[in-house]
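#onboarding

Welcome to the new folks! Below is a worked example of what a typical request in this channel looks like: someone posts a single protein sequence, and someone else replies with the predicted structure as tokens. Don't worry about understanding the tokens yet, we'll cover that in week two.

Example request:
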Amino acid sequence: MSSNLARRRGRSQTSSIIATTVCFLVVALALTGLMAHVVVAMTRSANEIDDARATRAASAAIAALVNRLSATTTDNAVWDDAYKAISSPGAADWAYENWGKTTADYPLYDGAVVIGPDQSSIVSAYAKGKPFQPSAFFGEGFFQQINKAADAGQAPVVNFIRTETGIALVVSQAIQPFTAEGELPKLSVLSLYKDLTPEVLDILSDEHELDGLHLATAPEPGLLNTPITDMQGGVIGHLVWPSKAPGSAVFHQVYPYISAAIIILVMFLGGVLLVGASEARRLRQLAQAAIFEANHDSLSGLLNRQGLLSLLEEVQGTDLAQPRLYLVDLDGFKAINDAWGHAVGDDLIRIVSNALVACHPEVVAAARLGGDEFALVQIGSAAPGEIEATILALFAEPFKIDGRTIEVGASIGAAALDGDLPPLELLRRADMALYRAKENGRGRAIEYDPELDRERQKVAEMEALLKSAISDGVIEAFFQPLVSAATGAVTGLEALARWRTPTGNISPEIFIPLAERCGLIDALGALMLKTSIEHAKNWPGLALSVNVSPVQLCNPEFAAEVISLLQGLDFDPKRLTLEITEGVLMTNPDQARRSIDHLKQVGIKFALDDFGCGYASIGALRQFGFDRMKIDRSLVSALDQSSNGADVLRATISLATALQIPVTAEGIENAHQAEILREAGCDQLQGYLIGKPMSALDISSKLREHAA
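Example response:
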């Protein structure tokens, strides 16, 4: 519950009390009666809650005792050695050595009885290390239990039985091999029992916080109890214990204060009102303490997810202005945890929590939904974008924590509680908006729009189509020629993925990022590599270049899968060049390096694609040992767009030449560009001037024409 709503109710109650002060005596009696009612109700409620807890604990204590003895019985009854021994002439001696002797001081059971296959003859019966007669000790009910337990494969039969000395828990199970082969003959039955002695009850009392637990034949007045029943359902005893009555204990603690309040009430009405209000608040806090932890985050003190949903349900049924929900996700929080440790991260969470709670007067509640995700509930008439701007302003300046300067941003998703919209749906809409805000970049705020759901549906449909297209082999490999800058001869081909559908072609710039996001890039990459190699086998002497996603290269299994494919298709690894972008140097350089080294060992070459549009350093070029550098098409197109484009291009090629890395220029569209690139030292050309991406059939025709 928000502090604003609580204060509103508090003021209403105060006004109601003041209105009754027309008559001093009437007000005094009314407030005294009200206070007494609240205290009694709280005392009774606290007592009932603890009594219910104690009753559940007593049931749990009995269940724990049953489970322990049942598990022990199963461990001893379902035992190959026991099955063989009990069927032998020395069964009695074996039973004594393994079970009867241990009853003398074994804490899990007090007695062990083995009944023969006829369910009447006693093979062995010992209690506390001494022989005894089960029929006399347990009565006829014991053999009824033996009959129920005689079949193999069933769970232990458990019952409480009244004995000569009191009540005992008896567990019976057929003695059987761990794994039965064929149909078993009639089986002997092992029964272990535990007397409900005062010592046993003391242990249960300590384990389950049931002080004063003891056994009685009937419920005792003024004490809590839970019945113990036998196999017929008849009550044979009761576990009895006194109530802790925490409410009464609290009442005795506050009784002096209540008495003082009554005296002050008689002396001065104003003092009575103040003391009564203070006492009422304190008692409400006691009543709400049990649910506070379940509805609040322990680190920040804000509401948690459940608390937020409960609050949204409350405000939904009021006449307040339309509530709005804002989800705030911190940008860069993981990097802070990794760099400074979780202690600094926790301090940052607390600082951000305090700032969000107080960021705007109309923010009535704040919640922490996850590690670095928060929620704010706003009720009021703030202008559109005002709350979002206020939140983003909190992150405009770095935070100071223990002398460290911590910089963190935020992304925001917002949604309005419209009509009878369920809270979970409101949360989902805000989450959809937050997801779009994070997609758009750091420090963004997005309002939910139904178009987001339609777009998500389209993406889901596209994912399904893409998965089907990959599995059906619909995505084709097209090929673009790579020619020597010096001779114009075709020296290689680059494989490019193309997806043609009945409604039109889908750009690789759409379906390749989609494949990376939805986990299909490995399957797509494997399809492209396999298809390209199968076609390239028809073009001997030409190198084949295939693009590889950073996601693929960072897969630990990637190198082995590529080598296995080459071996299966009998393709020379030295003809294959894998093209990777600079992004792989940033995401997971260690795994990328391992994959590259593994593949280079078999002769596969690597080209750095799109050089000049990212962040690759000279050190990275040397470290990864690229066999070729492909200049990004933006540098080539700059030859026709800027005066210094040629200088930038020459400098880039000079860098590659100094590192002894051959250079391919892509995106060449006119002879002017090609001439400058030749002069600058580029040894391989690619682009529409040389040849557009073509199907394998068209490439074969073009190669025949070129040869002719």
